[in-house]
Design goal:
Helix content: 55-70%
Largest sheet: 2 strands, antiparallel
Number of domains: 2
Number of helices: 13
Strand content: under 5%
Shape: elongated
Radius of gyration: 30 Å
Order of helices and strands: HHHHHHHHHHHEEHH
Length: 252
């Protein structure tokens, strides 16, 4: 699995696993937590977000940014602080079980932000813990705190994708070299230059790139740097002749 795949797994698996207790705390049907797609739509609704946002979660890299803002909204919906929301983002496998099995009470996103809807019972509004209201400059700074690390992560992941493709190309070239005299020597010395000449990438969608390698051109480039069989044979013959001459030459 690629680094990006592991990050997605660590982000999105914990909320899905913890969906049932979260739904129970929010008074939603627990059975929904075990229905694919419906469970994620329900988790979005817990944070006061439209289920249609699931479409944005299908876009590579953008889904990580959407996940960050969803975690912040979910923390508010359960009366937690923004610090806890950052914990949900950065340490998802730890903080989602704490939210699901801890003492948090669901108060809805509106109650958490300090605005109680008119149809909410007064007793429930009074009993619900109030989270710190963030607005104006503070809210903008909080968004930057969330967005900037994820932007840096996306840039790093793009570079990581190319590095993984390069490592795969090197491994494939080693396999291709088996049985070819001088191939591994040429690969060690000229892989970078040949790879750069025959490697290309293009945008795939808005947030991802796909990498390609012209294998025939790459292999021909390596072959141009193989030690010449004639030159190798001639060098071996010269060494053998020199050894024979030194053995037959009388000692002085």
């Amino acid at each position: 699995m690629s680094t990006y795949s592991w990050i997605q797994l660590l982000c999105f698996l914990p909320p899905i696993v913890c969906a049932a207790p979260l739904f129970k705390r929010a008074g939603k049907p627990v059975a929904t937590a075990f229905v694919p797609i419906a469970n994620f739509a329900g988790l979005l609704q817990l944070a006061g977000q439209s289920p249609w946002r699931m479409v944005l979660f299908l876009v590579p890299y953008l889904n990580l940014v959407m996940f960050a803002f969803w975690c912040r909204a979910l923390a508010q919906a359960f009366g937690k602080s923004n610090g806890f929301g950052i914990g949900l983002i950065a340490l998802s496998p730890v903080y989602f079980p704490l939210l699901a099995f801890g003492d948090a009470s669901y108060v809805s996103r509106e109650a958490a932000s300090g605005t109680t809807p008119g149809d909410q019972p007064a007793a429930q509004a009074a009993a619900a813990p109030q989270a710190e209201k963030v607005g104006g400059v503070g809210g903008f700074v909080m968004k930057l705190v969330i967005a900037l690390p994820f932007a840096a992560l996306i840039i790093w992941l793009r570079g990581s994708q190319e590095d993984e493709f390069k490592d795969k190309s090197r491994a494939d070239a080693l396999h291709w070299c088996l049985g070819k005299s001088g191939c591994e020597q040429a690969l060690a010395s000229h892989f970078e230059s040949c790879f750069d000449d025959y490697h290309s990438s293009q945008r795939r969608g808005r947030h991802s790139r796909t990498h390609q390698l012209d294998e025939n051109g790459f292999h021909n480039c390596l072959q141009q740097h193989f030690p010449s069989p004639i030159g190798t044979h001639k060098a071996a013959m010269d060494r053998a002749l020199a050894d024979e001459t030194s053995e037959t030459q009388p000692a002085r």
